[in-house]
Automatic annotation (TrEMBL):
Keywords: Oxidoreductase
Oxidoreductase found in the keyword field: yes
Highest taxon listed in the record's lineage: Bacteria
Name of this protein: Pyridoxamine 5'-phosphate oxidase family protein
Domain Pyridoxamine 5'-phosphate oxidase N-terminal residue range list: 27-116
InterPro entries, per database record: F420H2_bilvrd_red/Heme_oxyg, Pyridox_Oxase_N, Split_barrel_FMN-bd
Residues passing through the membrane, by range: none
Lineage: Bacteria, Bacillati, Actinomycetota, Actinomycetes, Pseudonocardiales
Length: 163
């Protein structure tokens, strides 16, 4: 499994598309988790790259974070509204680890306040999940073709071109 910084080295094309689309949508992504009955759940969220890691954190007492606490597998898809995907999109998937580190939580809260003005400083974090990535894919459109780039742990990026 790869943390965010390692993933960016191992799958630079996908990481670049993810970062670009993540920023373009105000950091909005769709998070896929597994419900207690095994069915999938899709939830909007705003993951953050902080101190070189991808973090899934947010409002306490939410079903998506309860899902992750029970089953750490996830998928994260950059938000897309363009059916032609002209700006591309990306997905990453893997597992999360719930990090209970009050000093890290305080630094994260300070960063969120500085970035968007949301003041969660001094509040306890119910969950703060660090993502470990095992696979990813990205789509890029241009020049009359579609490139699908995939990456799996232990393998290089692979591009499939569709005309």
């Amino acid at each position: 499994m790869a943390g965010w910084t390692e993933f960016c080295v191992l799958a630079p094309s996908i990481a670049a598309v993810f970062a670009r689309r993540h920023e373009a949508t105000g950091k909005l992504c769709m998070l896929g988790t597994l419900r207690p009955d095994g069915f999938p759940r899709i939830s909007p969220m705003e993951p953050r790259v902080f101190e070189g890691e991808l973090w899934l954190a947010g409002m306490p007492h939410t079903a998506k974070f309860d899902d992750l606490a029970r089953d750490p597998r996830f998928t994260l898809h950059t938000a897309t509204v363009d059916t032609h995907v002209t700006e591309g999109d990306a997905k990453v998937w893997g597992t999360v680890e719930d990090v209970h580190d009050e000093a890290l939580h305080a630094r994260f809260a300070e960063a969120i306040f500085a970035e968007i003005g949301l003041d969660i400083r001094g509040q306890p974090f119910e969950h703060c999940f660090r993502a470990e990535i095992v696979g990813a894919s990205a789509v890029a459109v241009g020049g009359g073709h579609l490139d699908i780039t995939t990456w799996r742990e232990g393998h290089p990026e692979t591009v499939i071109r569709k005309h």
